[in-house]
Amino acid sequence: MKLKTLSTSILLATLPTSGVFAAALDRSGQSISAFLQPGNYFEAGISVLDPNVSGKTTANEKTGDMAGDYYFPAAALKLQVADQFSVGLLYDQPFGADAEYTKSTAFTNAQGNTAVEVDTQNLSLILGFQPTENWNIYGGAVYQTVKGNVSLRGSTYSALGGIPAYGIGGYDAKIKETDGYGWLAGVAYQIPEIALKAAVTYRSEIDHDVNIKENIPSPAQMGAIGQTGFELLLPNGYAEAETTITTPQSVNLDLQTGIMENTVAFANVRWVNWKDFAIRPNKFGQFAGVATYPAGGKGFDLVAYTDDQWSATVGLGRKFDEKWAGNVSVGWDSGAGNPVTTLGPTEGYWNVGLGLQYSPAPNYFIAGGVKYFWLGDAKAQSGADFGTNNFAAEFKDSHALAYGLKIGYKF
């Protein structure tokens, strides 16, 4: 069976569209497959997503397509510095969001649109120890940056805290780019003769102490409509204060095995701890903390999720000849709860994918692929309704198309 060389070929053909549209803010999937390649290796890729997410409000207004197109790059360098020691440097953009409502009074007003943009970057330095040909024990440090902008507009947020000024002016948060540090650890096992590989990788949560500049209804606005109890909490216009944002911990399980000549089966399972994730900017938190809505006045978060994310991808890869290889895959994502935040109104997905790899020479390749996503129906709610069954809009029949390109070089 020609599996020993196929093992590397098919892993390389697995494209950077694996994460692309996942639960909550998950984006890249945080793969470390490049670090597990034999010898010295470099790769770079880009993924592009074209989603269509639309629905109707409880007032039967169409929301229009609120999901923005986006792209993100990834790159990796792995060096086998000695027979039993390797080092790797991986770059990706693990979490993100890009959305804007341009229709319906539920999410827009004269002052603008409800919108969100979140960008993160990861740089992982990994050290590996291979005591035998079969085992690889690895770990390392992770440097991460995060930045973003959020705007809330429209009648969906007019009852936020019982203050109608949200419907008049709105709320804005500008998250200044800041950094934080975490770590990863894992273990891999392989039997090259049968193209067997198995790896489990844990990534820690990462704390970011960010300065968030918030724009909130001014005392003059609130006084004009009879809301005068909040002036001591809320200054006029923009206010800046520190808030801690913690990106979630995760676990990836990667499997591959030969099943017949020139053919392997592969799978990936991923867990992300979104249930414990929440964002409550400093001034927003003060605002929400004295709210009379929801009942009890316990306050609420700007963004939060009720469930952890589980996702899985399974597929088959085949080497057609010395230059061509390809794969087919099926993917599933659980989502992170329903109802969901208005800033990301889908609940999980199913997808199918096709990938093709061309190797002009044994030491380098070009790969491309495409995936089609059926995005799960969801009910969207504001933070004030989190934990209840109340919702502002319902999204159905959403879908997305993702495609990617990657190059790899062995040296």
Spell out the key features of this protein.
411 residues; Porin; 14-stranded antiparallel beta barrel; globular
Helices and strands, with pairings:
Layout: H1 4-13, E1 41-52, E2 55-57, E3 70-82, E4 85-92, E5 96-100, E6 108-109, E7 112-113, E8 115-129, E9 135-152, H2 165-168, E10 171-191, E11 196-203, E12 206-216, H3 219-224, E13 237-247, E14 250-260, E15 263-272, E16 278-279, H4 282-289, E17 303-304, E18 309-319, E19 324-333, E20 340-341, E21 349-361, E22 364-375, E23 378-381, E24 393-395, E25 399-410
Parallel strand pairs: 20-23
Antiparallel strand pairs: 1-3, 1-25, 2-24, 3-4, 4-8, 5-8, 6-7, 8-9, 9-10, 10-11, 10-12, 11-14, 12-13, 14-15, 15-18, 16-17, 18-19, 19-21, 21-22, 22-25, 23-24
Explain what this protein looks like in three dimensions:
- There is one protein chain.
- With 411 residues, this protein is mainly beta.
- The chain has one domain (4-410): Outer membrane protein transport protein (OMPP1/FadL/TodX) (Porin).
- Helices cover 7% and strands 54% of the residues.
- The strands form four sheets. The protein has a 14-stranded antiparallel barrel. Strands 2-24-23-20 form a four-stranded mixed sheet, with no helix packed on it. A two-stranded antiparallel sheet has the order 6-7.
- A hairpin with a 5-residue loop joins β8 and β9.
- The two termini are 25 Å apart.
- Mean pLDDT is 86; it is low at 4-13, 161-168 and 219-234.
- This is Transporter.
- It is a multi-pass membrane protein.
- One of its GO terms (molecular function) is long-chain fatty acid transporting porin activity.
- InterPro entries: OMPP1/FadL/TodX (IPR005017).
